[in-house]
Amino acid sequence: MLASDLLVECLKKEGVEYIFGIPGEETLYIMESLRKGKMQFILTRHEQGAAFMANVYGRLTNRPGVCFATLGPGASNLLTGVADAYLDRAPLVAITAQASLKKVHKEFHQYIDIVKMFQPATKWNARVERPEVIPEIVRKAFKIAQLEKPGATHIELPEDIAATKTDGMPLSGDGIEYPLPNPDAIKRAASIIEQAKSPIILVGNGVTRRRAAEELREFAEHLQIPITNTFMGKGSIDYRNPLSLFTVGLQARDWVMCGFDRADVVIAIGYDFVEYSPSHWNPEKY
Asked: Which fold, 183-281?
């Protein structure tokens, strides 16, 4: 089989159902492999739209959405949506084409170093330089995209590597195992909450991501602790719930900030610094 065929088989093994993107000259082998493999390719009008579609797919399913683009401007157009997935902790795998390896050291039409360009906006990314390592690279890209904190990864497949004949089999994933908290840490947290006189709960994207809204509600109602959520934590508690203090996240001192001003303990659940900097809700740096 061709390396592009092996790539598609690995994607199928990962449970990929849809690929969002725009093809190009350097992606012809991959597109033909997708056709033969009966993968559903969603053609978009712009690569940025493809990345955001994969981004939302990842948020809704907790499985990496896959977006696809050719080299140069195709890849750079993809970057905005990839960066959003990286910052908002949505699992996503981006796949881009590239010129043949024998051309990457030259000044070549539309060539840019995509791996280096994507590095600040991904958890991990790599160029395929040998076709036999495709199963390892695909498995690693999908695993890292899903591990906490989820985010974007990237695979670059040069045109000549995609057309190379190879033997190989997709790797089986063992599922994702998430770490458990230390029992001593749980006891310490329980002790702090028990002694608190005016606690407040700050909910973030992690509650939505891990489908823990019901557990959150039970916890808050049992202890009668009010809840505020970040913009990424919206939907984690019904706004009609008497304990709901609605959404916080603007840099201005909106009215809900008064709750933080009076709180002696802030219980952060599923919260990520990138959602709302502690300097806004904890200006005294306690």
From this structure: Rossmann fold (3.40.50)
Domains 3-162 and 183-281 belong to one CATH topology = yes
- Which tokens in the block code for residue 19? 């690929």
Q: Which residue, among 142, 127, 128, 141, has the nearest Cα to 15 in the 3D structure?
A: 142
Q: Give the residue among 39, 30, 69 at the shortest CA–CA distance from 163.
A: 30
What is Dmax (Cα atoms) for the chain? 68
User: Looking up tokens 């978009």, which residue turns up?
Assistant: 44
- Tell which residue, 257, 208, 263, 259, has the closest CA to residue 89: 208
pLDDT in tens, the chain (286 residues): 999 999 999 999 999 999 999 999 889 999 999 999 889 999 999 999 999 999 999 999 999 999 999 999 999 999 999 999 999 999 999 999 998 777 666 566 667 899 999 999 999 999 999 999 999 999 999 999 999 889 999 999 999 999 999 988 999 877 777 778 899 999 999 999 999 999 999 999 999 888 899 999 999 999 999 999 999 888 898 889 999 988 887 766 665 666 888 889 999 999 988 888 888 777 776 6
Q: Would you kindly state where each structural domain of the chain is located, as residue ranges? A: 3-162, 183-281
In the CATH hierarchy, which fold is given to the domain comprising 3-162? Answer: Rossmann fold (3.40.50)
Q: Which token pair is 152?
A: 């974007």
Q: What is this structure's pTM? A: 0.83
Sequence-ordered list of residues with C-beta below 8 angstroms from that of 269, at least 6 positions apart, any chain: 201, 202, 203, 204, 206, 207, 212, 216
